[in-house]
Design goal:
Length: about 325
Protein backbone atom coordinates (compact mmCIF):
# COMPACT_ATOMS: atom_id res chain seq x y z
CA UNK A 1 0.00 0.00 0.00
CA UNK A 2 1.25 3.46 -0.93
CA UNK A 3 0.90 6.36 1.48
CA UNK A 4 1.67 9.75 0.01
CA UNK A 5 2.19 11.54 3.30
CA UNK A 6 3.91 14.75 2.24
CA UNK A 7 5.06 16.91 -0.62
CA UNK A 8 8.10 18.47 0.98
CA UNK A 9 11.84 18.21 1.34
CA UNK A 10 12.37 19.53 4.85
CA UNK A 11 15.87 18.83 6.17
CA UNK A 12 16.64 16.88 9.32
CA UNK A 13 18.70 19.84 10.47
CA UNK A 14 18.69 23.49 9.47
CA UNK A 15 22.25 23.11 8.21
CA UNK A 16 21.14 21.18 5.11
CA UNK A 17 20.01 22.76 1.86
CA UNK A 18 17.17 20.96 0.08
CA UNK A 19 15.72 20.89 -3.40
CA UNK A 20 12.49 22.92 -3.73
CA UNK A 21 11.05 20.61 -6.42
CA UNK A 22 11.67 17.31 -4.62
CA UNK A 23 8.82 15.21 -3.18
CA UNK A 24 8.74 12.65 -0.39
CA UNK A 25 6.70 9.44 -0.62
CA UNK A 26 6.31 6.74 2.02
CA UNK A 27 5.82 3.11 0.94
CA UNK A 28 4.81 -0.03 2.81
CA UNK A 29 7.00 -3.06 2.09
CA UNK A 30 5.75 -6.62 1.58
CA UNK A 31 6.74 -7.49 5.16
CA UNK A 32 4.92 -4.50 6.66
CA UNK A 33 7.75 -2.01 7.19
CA UNK A 34 7.87 1.55 5.87
CA UNK A 35 10.48 3.10 3.57
CA UNK A 36 10.70 6.60 2.14
CA UNK A 37 11.49 7.76 -1.38
CA UNK A 38 12.79 11.23 -2.15
CA UNK A 39 12.25 12.20 -5.80
CA UNK A 40 14.26 14.72 -7.82
CA UNK A 41 12.20 14.86 -11.04
CA UNK A 42 14.14 14.63 -14.28
CA UNK A 43 13.26 14.09 -17.90
CA UNK A 44 15.25 10.92 -18.50
CA UNK A 45 15.75 7.34 -17.34
CA UNK A 46 15.15 6.56 -13.64
CA UNK A 47 18.04 6.08 -11.21
CA UNK A 48 17.64 4.88 -7.62
CA UNK A 49 20.28 6.06 -5.10
CA UNK A 50 20.65 4.12 -1.84
CA UNK A 51 22.64 5.06 1.27
CA UNK A 52 24.90 2.90 3.42
CA UNK A 53 24.95 1.72 7.02
CA UNK A 54 24.01 4.25 9.74
CA UNK A 55 23.21 6.77 7.01
CA UNK A 56 20.23 8.09 5.07
CA UNK A 57 19.29 9.52 1.67
CA UNK A 58 21.07 12.80 2.35
CA UNK A 59 24.38 11.06 1.75
CA UNK A 60 23.54 11.50 -1.94
CA UNK A 61 21.96 14.93 -1.48
CA UNK A 62 23.62 16.88 1.33
CA UNK A 63 23.30 20.30 -0.29
CA UNK A 64 23.46 21.93 -3.72
CA UNK A 65 27.25 21.52 -3.93
CA UNK A 66 27.37 17.94 -2.60
CA UNK A 67 24.63 16.03 -4.39
CA UNK A 68 24.92 13.19 -6.87
CA UNK A 69 21.12 13.42 -7.14
CA UNK A 70 21.08 16.98 -8.47
CA UNK A 71 24.21 16.36 -10.54
CA UNK A 72 22.46 13.50 -12.36
CA UNK A 73 19.24 15.47 -12.86
CA UNK A 74 21.32 18.18 -14.54
CA UNK A 75 22.62 15.48 -16.90
CA UNK A 76 19.24 14.16 -17.91
CA UNK A 77 18.29 11.51 -15.35
CA UNK A 78 15.16 11.07 -13.21
CA UNK A 79 16.51 10.54 -9.69
CA UNK A 80 14.98 8.76 -6.71
CA UNK A 81 16.64 8.41 -3.29
CA UNK A 82 15.70 5.70 -0.79
CA UNK A 83 15.59 5.86 2.99
CA UNK A 84 15.70 2.25 4.17
CA UNK A 85 13.47 1.38 7.13
CA UNK A 86 14.70 2.94 10.36
CA UNK A 87 16.71 5.61 8.55
CA UNK A 88 16.14 9.24 7.70
CA UNK A 89 12.52 9.93 6.77
CA UNK A 90 11.67 6.27 7.47
CA UNK A 91 12.61 6.28 11.14
CA UNK A 92 8.87 5.96 11.78
CA UNK A 93 6.32 3.84 9.97
CA UNK A 94 3.16 5.08 8.27
CA UNK A 95 1.35 5.16 11.64
CA UNK A 96 4.09 7.19 13.28
CA UNK A 97 5.53 4.28 15.26
CA UNK A 98 9.35 4.30 15.54
CA UNK A 99 11.08 1.58 13.50
CA UNK A 100 13.88 0.53 15.81
CA UNK A 101 14.64 -3.14 15.35
CA UNK A 102 13.60 -6.49 13.93
CA UNK A 103 15.29 -6.66 10.53
CA UNK A 104 18.57 -7.69 8.92
CA UNK A 105 20.60 -6.54 5.95
CA UNK A 106 18.81 -9.20 3.90
CA UNK A 107 15.48 -7.53 4.58
CA UNK A 108 16.71 -4.26 3.13
CA UNK A 109 17.41 -5.99 -0.17
CA UNK A 110 14.47 -8.37 -0.25
CA UNK A 111 11.78 -5.91 0.79
CA UNK A 112 12.91 -2.27 0.95
CA UNK A 113 14.68 -2.12 -2.39
CA UNK A 114 11.95 -4.24 -3.97
CA UNK A 115 9.26 -1.77 -2.84
CA UNK A 116 11.25 1.20 -4.10
CA UNK A 117 12.05 -0.28 -7.52
CA UNK A 118 8.45 -1.36 -8.04
CA UNK A 119 7.16 2.11 -7.17
CA UNK A 120 9.60 3.81 -9.54
CA UNK A 121 8.58 1.42 -12.32
CA UNK A 122 4.90 2.14 -11.70
CA UNK A 123 5.32 5.91 -11.65
CA UNK A 124 7.70 6.23 -14.59
CA UNK A 125 6.38 3.41 -16.77
CA UNK A 126 9.97 2.23 -17.28
CA UNK A 127 10.71 -1.50 -17.25
CA UNK A 128 14.15 -1.07 -15.68
CA UNK A 129 15.71 1.22 -13.08
CA UNK A 130 19.42 1.97 -12.66
CA UNK A 131 20.79 1.48 -9.14
CA UNK A 132 23.60 3.28 -7.30
CA UNK A 133 24.44 2.20 -3.75
CA UNK A 134 27.06 3.40 -1.30
CA UNK A 135 28.66 0.85 1.04
CA UNK A 136 25.83 -1.26 2.51
CA UNK A 137 23.54 0.32 -0.09
CA UNK A 138 25.51 -1.49 -2.77
CA UNK A 139 25.37 -4.71 -0.79
CA UNK A 140 21.57 -4.64 -0.49
CA UNK A 141 21.33 -3.84 -4.19
CA UNK A 142 23.21 -7.04 -4.87
CA UNK A 143 20.88 -8.99 -2.58
CA UNK A 144 17.88 -7.59 -4.46
CA UNK A 145 19.39 -8.58 -7.79
CA UNK A 146 20.30 -12.08 -6.59
CA UNK A 147 16.82 -12.61 -5.15
CA UNK A 148 15.19 -12.23 -8.56
CA UNK A 149 15.30 -8.49 -9.12
CA UNK A 150 18.16 -8.39 -11.63
CA UNK A 151 15.82 -8.10 -14.60
CA UNK A 152 14.42 -4.89 -13.16
CA UNK A 153 17.85 -3.20 -13.07
CA UNK A 154 19.43 -1.63 -16.15
CA UNK A 155 22.71 -1.04 -14.33
CA UNK A 156 24.18 -1.62 -10.87
CA UNK A 157 26.83 0.73 -9.48
CA UNK A 158 28.38 0.03 -6.08
CA UNK A 159 30.53 2.64 -4.34
CA UNK A 160 32.76 1.43 -1.51
CA UNK A 161 30.68 -1.76 -1.12
CA UNK A 162 32.66 -4.74 0.22
CA UNK A 163 32.03 -8.23 -1.08
CA UNK A 164 34.28 -9.79 1.52
CA UNK A 165 35.88 -8.87 4.85
CA UNK A 166 39.15 -9.39 6.69
CA UNK A 167 38.28 -9.51 10.36
CA UNK A 168 41.84 -8.65 11.44
CA UNK A 169 41.91 -5.38 9.49
CA UNK A 170 42.07 -2.66 12.19
CA UNK A 171 38.86 -0.80 11.43
CA UNK A 172 36.96 -3.99 10.62
CA UNK A 173 38.10 -5.54 13.89
CA UNK A 174 36.88 -2.46 15.76
CA UNK A 175 33.56 -2.49 13.89
CA UNK A 176 33.07 -6.21 14.46
CA UNK A 177 33.56 -5.83 18.21
CA UNK A 178 31.15 -2.90 18.28
CA UNK A 179 28.50 -4.71 16.25
CA UNK A 180 28.77 -7.81 18.43
CA UNK A 181 28.46 -5.81 21.65
CA UNK A 182 25.65 -3.60 20.38
CA UNK A 183 23.76 -6.44 18.78
CA UNK A 184 23.85 -8.40 22.01
CA UNK A 185 22.83 -5.62 24.37
CA UNK A 186 20.93 -2.90 22.49
CA UNK A 187 17.63 -2.69 20.63
CA UNK A 188 19.24 -0.09 18.42
CA UNK A 189 22.31 2.15 18.47
CA UNK A 190 21.61 5.88 18.35
CA UNK A 191 24.53 6.84 16.11
CA UNK A 192 23.42 10.50 15.73
CA UNK A 193 24.47 11.03 19.35
CA UNK A 194 27.96 9.80 18.50
CA UNK A 195 27.98 11.98 15.40
CA UNK A 196 27.11 15.07 17.43
CA UNK A 197 30.03 14.31 19.73
CA UNK A 198 32.36 13.81 16.77
CA UNK A 199 31.26 17.12 15.26
CA UNK A 200 32.06 18.88 18.52
CA UNK A 201 35.40 17.13 19.09
CA UNK A 202 36.65 17.18 15.49
CA UNK A 203 40.25 15.92 15.34
CA UNK A 204 40.10 15.11 19.06
CA UNK A 205 37.65 12.27 18.41
CA UNK A 206 39.06 9.16 20.17
CA UNK A 207 41.17 6.98 17.93
CA UNK A 208 41.01 9.48 15.08
CA UNK A 209 37.89 7.61 14.00
CA UNK A 210 36.75 10.32 11.62
CA UNK A 211 39.99 10.15 9.65
CA UNK A 212 39.48 6.41 9.26
CA UNK A 213 35.99 6.86 7.82
CA UNK A 214 36.94 9.56 5.31
CA UNK A 215 39.98 11.41 4.07
CA UNK A 216 39.54 14.79 5.76
CA UNK A 217 41.69 16.40 3.07
CA UNK A 218 38.77 15.85 0.67
CA UNK A 219 36.22 17.59 2.89
CA UNK A 220 35.91 21.18 4.07
CA UNK A 221 35.23 21.83 7.75
CA UNK A 222 31.72 23.01 6.86
CA UNK A 223 30.98 19.83 4.90
CA UNK A 224 32.19 17.70 7.80
CA UNK A 225 29.84 19.49 10.18
CA UNK A 226 26.93 19.19 7.77
CA UNK A 227 27.35 15.49 7.10
CA UNK A 228 27.75 14.62 10.78
CA UNK A 229 24.57 16.53 11.56
CA UNK A 230 22.45 15.36 8.64
CA UNK A 231 23.24 11.90 7.31
CA UNK A 232 23.77 9.77 10.41
CA UNK A 233 20.95 7.36 11.34
CA UNK A 234 20.61 4.58 13.94
CA UNK A 235 21.52 0.93 13.49
CA UNK A 236 19.18 -1.85 14.60
CA UNK A 237 20.14 -4.78 16.81
CA UNK A 238 19.65 -7.49 14.16
CA UNK A 239 21.49 -5.42 11.55
CA UNK A 240 24.49 -5.19 13.88
CA UNK A 241 24.30 -8.92 14.60
CA UNK A 242 24.23 -9.67 10.88
CA UNK A 243 27.32 -7.57 10.20
CA UNK A 244 29.11 -9.08 13.19
CA UNK A 245 28.55 -12.56 11.73
CA UNK A 246 29.69 -11.52 8.25
CA UNK A 247 32.87 -10.04 9.67
CA UNK A 248 33.53 -13.07 11.85
CA UNK A 249 33.02 -15.44 8.89
CA UNK A 250 34.82 -13.08 6.49
CA UNK A 251 32.16 -13.40 3.83
CA UNK A 252 29.10 -11.57 2.53
CA UNK A 253 26.40 -13.99 3.63
CA UNK A 254 22.72 -14.09 4.56
CA UNK A 255 21.73 -13.57 8.18
CA UNK A 256 21.04 -17.29 8.63
CA UNK A 257 24.37 -18.21 7.05
CA UNK A 258 22.68 -20.29 4.36
CA UNK A 259 23.47 -18.09 1.36
CA UNK A 260 26.86 -16.90 0.21
CA UNK A 261 25.81 -13.80 -1.69
CA UNK A 262 28.94 -13.69 -3.84
CA UNK A 263 28.16 -17.18 -5.14
CA UNK A 264 24.61 -16.06 -5.87
CA UNK A 265 25.96 -13.10 -7.84
CA UNK A 266 27.21 -15.47 -10.53
CA UNK A 267 23.66 -15.69 -11.89
CA UNK A 268 23.25 -11.89 -11.97
CA UNK A 269 23.89 -10.48 -15.45
CA UNK A 270 23.14 -6.82 -14.63
CA UNK A 271 26.03 -4.62 -15.87
CA UNK A 272 27.95 -3.81 -12.68
CA UNK A 273 30.46 -1.07 -11.93
CA UNK A 274 32.43 -1.02 -8.69
CA UNK A 275 34.11 2.15 -7.40
CA UNK A 276 36.57 2.14 -4.50
CA UNK A 277 38.75 4.70 -2.78
CA UNK A 278 42.43 3.86 -2.56
CA UNK A 279 42.48 4.98 1.11
CA UNK A 280 39.16 3.38 2.12
CA UNK A 281 39.45 1.20 5.23
CA UNK A 282 35.79 0.15 5.21
CA UNK A 283 35.46 -0.86 1.57
CA UNK A 284 39.04 -1.64 0.64
CA UNK A 285 39.63 -1.81 -3.13
CA UNK A 286 40.28 -5.55 -3.06
CA UNK A 287 37.04 -6.14 -1.13
CA UNK A 288 34.99 -4.10 -3.58
CA UNK A 289 36.76 -5.84 -6.45
CA UNK A 290 35.66 -9.21 -5.03
CA UNK A 291 32.02 -8.03 -5.21
CA UNK A 292 32.34 -6.96 -8.83
CA UNK A 293 34.30 -10.01 -9.95
CA UNK A 294 31.55 -12.29 -8.60
CA UNK A 295 28.97 -10.85 -11.02
CA UNK A 296 27.96 -12.84 -14.09
CA UNK A 297 27.44 -9.97 -16.52
CA UNK A 298 29.42 -7.02 -17.90
CA UNK A 299 31.50 -5.46 -15.17
CA UNK A 300 34.13 -2.85 -14.55
CA UNK A 301 36.08 -1.53 -11.58
CA UNK A 302 37.68 1.82 -10.78
CA UNK A 303 39.89 2.95 -7.90
CA UNK A 304 39.85 6.67 -7.07
CA UNK A 305 43.26 7.77 -5.71
CA UNK A 306 43.29 9.45 -2.31
CA UNK A 307 39.67 8.78 -1.40
CA UNK A 308 38.35 7.21 1.78
CA UNK A 309 34.81 5.93 2.37
CA UNK A 310 32.40 8.80 2.92
CA UNK A 311 34.24 11.28 0.70
CA UNK A 312 33.52 9.09 -2.34
CA UNK A 313 30.10 10.71 -2.32
CA UNK A 314 30.65 13.93 -0.40
CA UNK A 315 34.18 15.03 -1.22
CA UNK A 316 34.66 18.58 -2.49
CA UNK A 317 35.92 17.23 -5.83
CA UNK A 318 33.66 14.16 -6.05
CA UNK A 319 31.67 15.78 -8.87
CA UNK A 320 34.77 15.83 -11.06
CA UNK A 321 36.70 12.81 -9.76
CA UNK A 322 34.02 10.25 -8.82
CA UNK A 323 30.66 11.14 -10.38
CA UNK A 324 31.85 11.01 -14.02
CA UNK A 325 32.55 7.27 -13.59
CA UNK A 326 28.94 6.81 -12.51
CA UNK A 327 27.62 8.91 -15.38
CA UNK A 328 29.63 6.99 -17.97
CA UNK A 329 28.26 3.63 -16.78
CA UNK A 330 24.71 4.97 -16.70
CA UNK A 331 25.08 6.45 -20.18
CA UNK A 332 26.30 3.12 -21.50
CA UNK A 333 23.66 0.88 -19.94
CA UNK A 334 20.74 2.99 -18.69
CA UNK A 335 20.58 5.75 -21.27
CA UNK A 336 19.27 9.20 -20.53
Amino acid sequence: MLSLLALACAPETDAVDTCPLATNTWLETADGATVALHHHPGRGSPVLLVHGIASNHRFWDLDAEHSLARWLVDRGYDVWLLDLRGHGLARRDADGVPQLSGWTVDDYGRYDVAAAVHHVQQVTGERQVAYVGHSMGGMVGGIYAAEGGAGNLSALIVVGSPGTFERDAPLVRLAGAGFAAGGASLWWFETPVAADAAAALGPLTPGGLQDRIYNAENLSDETERKLLGAIVSPMSREEMQHFARMIQHERFESADGQRDWLRAFGAVTTPTLGIAGSADEIGRPEWVRAYVDAMGGPRSFAVIPGYGHVDLGLGERASTEVFPHIEAWLDQYAGR
